[in-house]
Design brief:
Length: about 160
């Protein structure tokens, strides 16, 4: 496979993929990981931030996930969310109060999580905006980032241990 070392080339290649194709790539990677003898009985969790948060939603949406728990951070909802209604993963959704565009996606996702009947929690962290967990950016909110990370670790301990 070719290596993409140029950011513009990487962005162009990424732009050619469909959300379903990207989710399948994630599923294939997880299936490969689970096939390894040192992890084949392990529970696996998924998390991502921004685009990665959206990919975490896509992972839960497009195919029965091979993960037992997921924590998408301020990830945009997929265009079509019906697949989330059949997820088997426990989901902690992390949103930022001031990020109204992305946070409004919970209105489409939460009914699907209810339909799935899985453990889920939707946390909207007050006083912060998109990318509040990015400690290299101007929107970093240290207190809320620590709280969200503690919530994430607690979630994974509960559903992956």
């Amino acid at each position: 496979a070719d290596k993409l070392t140029d950011q513009a080339a990487y962005n162009a290649a990424l732009g050619k993929l469909t959300p379903a194709g990207m989710a399948k790539d994630l599923q294939d990677a997880i299936a490969h990981l689970k096939a390894q003898s040192f992890v084949n009985t392990a529970k696996i969790g998924a998390t991502g931030f921004c685009f990665g948060g959206g990919m975490t939603w896509s992972l839960l949406n497009f195919a029965p996930p091979l993960v037992q728990a997921a924590v998408p951070y301020y990830g945009p909802a997929p265009t079509e969310v019906a697949g989330i209604g059949s997820t088997k993963a426990a989901v902690l959704a992390v949103y930022a109060e001031q990020d109204t565009r992305v946070t409004s996606g919970r209105d489409q996702i939460e009914p699907q999580l209810k339909k799935a009947g899985v453990p889920y929690q939707v946390n909207v962290y007050p006083g912060v905006n998109h990318a509040f967990h990015n400690d290299t950016g101007t929107r970093y909110g240290a207190d809320q980032a620590r709280k969200a990370w503690t919530d994430t670790i607690d979630w994974f301990k509960k559903y992956l241990a």
